[in-house]
Give the backbone structure.
Amino acid sequence: VGWRVAPASAEELESFCHLRVAQEGWRVAPGS
């Protein structure tokens, strides 16, 4: 899906997504 890192769980994926959004300013919603 374009991620360089594969999260171990859905919760980690969510945290990772929020982290990336916070850092990059993205509004991308993976899976949507």
Notes: The CA atoms of residues 19 and 25 lie 10 Å apart. The chain has one domain: 1-27.
